[in-house]
Every structure is written in structure tokens, then in C-alpha cells.
Amino acid sequence: MSTADRRIPVSLISGFLGAGKSTLLNHWLQQPQLAKAAVLINEYGPVGVDHHLVRQLDHQPVLLASGCICCTLQGSLVDSLQSLFLQALRRQVPPFDRLIIETTGLADPAGVMFTLRQSPFLAERYRYAGLLTVVDGQYGLAQLETEPEALKQAALADALLISKPDLCTEDQLQALQQRLVQINPGATCQTVAHGQAEVALLAQLCPDPASSPRRLKRWLQPATTIGLHGDGAPAHGVTSFCLTLPPQWGLADLLAALERVQNRHGAALLRLKGLVRFPGDTAPLVLQAVHGTLYPLARLAEYPPELTDNQLVFLTRNLTQAQLAESFFEC
């Protein structure tokens, strides 16, 4: 992301119920680096960020002891983000330079990604700055097999944090790490105890894979396996595969293909990423989309020779490679 971009970065913290999202957030809110941050909590019922910051929040933002602005998400995300921005503009709340959204444990993080891109008001003032998913070290492996929300949260993440390492054995921890690499090889993965992760992790979440050739190579890897079922069927219908663009295709052909997929299959397309180089181009473009919503194309200044271009990595739900290819390559 260019330094000229003055929009407010929006970072998401996701994770299944009880994974440790609030513990992590409470630790971060005590750090001086986030003194000017705003926090939006999407949760049901009474809301409090840990016992040190417990307070009954309503739709009006409040100033926490750390200096952060905090409020709950009531109504639509568009209304909440628009209201928070306007209140800061009117000096009804302190100005903020970052927004952190903690999603409910049952939330689909792609919905927030989609909203930030589709609302003109939000797109001009906020920018998506990555998804961090917290995975329960004790129960995460079972949740990835039985809970579709947990699997999707892990698959869409830019970074993964395994919590509660003190409550699981070394074998459990290693099995969970291996499973997460299978699901999302493009995400960084580390272990954290008691939410004590470095705030610097937020700055590393930016979903700009072109920031380094090494990250780009890791980011472009398709998941080796999503499903855990004995019959080889994908768990919860989620699977990952690759399609190769025809060498004669241009940008218009690709955009038309993506539009066909979006119109016919909608939310079945969870995520798309790839490196594409069209005829006549000297450098490739980094391509990524969530639910068919395309992010701005980023051209690489320098092409890593070890990478394969024109290969797209798809993450889908209840959509086979043959079904997607039929729509994608129709012309």
C-alpha cells in the first residue's frame, strides 16, 4: 500500500468462540502504539474487553482507559463505520488513526472485507488492512473439522495466532500447526500465550503480497488439503485448486470470466489469488479477490523468476473445479 494512501487502515481479529480474541485485544489496547486506535466489537449481548476494561457499551463510542475509542456494532457495518468517522470529524470523539474490528466467534470475516470495498463512503475513507485469526490451541484441531466458520476464518486469514499453548501437548500443537499450513500455506503462523503478541503484527497484516518475493511465493501456494473426511470429501464443502489462464487472454477476458463466476456462483467463491501476465506485459500483476470482489491490481516492479504466472489459486465452498472451470472458460 502506498504511503500516499491516507485512508484509515481497518484490521480484523477473527477466531472461533473462546479462541482468545478479547485477551489479545485487551493486551494490545494497553500498548502506547494503539493509543489513537478505534475498536469496534461485533458481539452479542453485554460487551466488555476483559475484566480490566469491562463496561456496558451502547451505540455511543466511549474512551477507554488506554485512550482508545471503543463501541459495539449495532445495525449495519456501513452505518457504524460511517457514524464513527463523522463523530471523529465533528470532534465528538477523539480522532483515530486505525480501526480494529473484533468479529463475533461465529462471524464470516469475508462480509467485512466485502463491505469495505462496496460502500463508496467507506471505500474513500477506510482501507482493509488484513485479517488475523486466533485459533484455540486446545480445541482448534477439532473445531477445524466440525465447525465450518472456524475453517473459513483460518482459510481467509493473512496471519494465524495459535493461543493457549500451555493447555495442549507438544504433539497437539504440532498437529494443529501442520493442519493450518495445509489449509492456508500463505498465512504466517505463530504461537502466543495469554494474548501477549506484538502490536507490530498488525502492520504485517497488510494483504499486499508484492511486499517481498518470498511472501509472494508463499502467498500463491494453494492449500494442499482442506478436508479431513476419510472418504476424501472436502470438509464443509471447502476446497482449493488452481486454474491456468490461456496464454492469449487479456485483462478484459479475465474480468469477463470473473464476472461470469460471480454471477453464477456468488458466495461460493471464497477467495482468489494469482500472478497474471498478459501478452505484451513485461511485469505481472498481483490479483486477489474475495467473494468475487476484485482488489485493485498491483503491478510488480521486479518479477521473481522462480514464480509461475497465469496460474490462479481458488478457494471455494460447495463448488468443484469442473463447475468453476465451465463458467470461467466458457468463451
Structure description:
With 331 residues, this protein is α/β, with parallel strands linked by helices. It has two domains: 8-207, 3-Layer(aba) Sandwich (Rossmann fold), CATH 3.40.50.300; 214-328, CobW-like, C-terminal domain (Hypothetical Protein Yjia, Chain: A,domain 2, 2-Layer Sandwich), CATH 3.30.1220. Helix content is 31%, strand content 24%. The strands form three sheets. Strands 5-6-2-7-1-8-9-10 form an eight-stranded mixed beta sheet, sandwiched between helices. Helix 5 (140-146) packs across helix 6 (148-156). Residues 238-331 form the CobW C-terminal domain. Pfam families: cobW, CobW_C. Zinc chaperone that directly transfers zinc cofactor to target proteins, thereby activating them. Zinc is transferred from the CXCC motif in the GTPase domain to the zinc binding site in target proteins in a process requiring GTP hydrolysis.
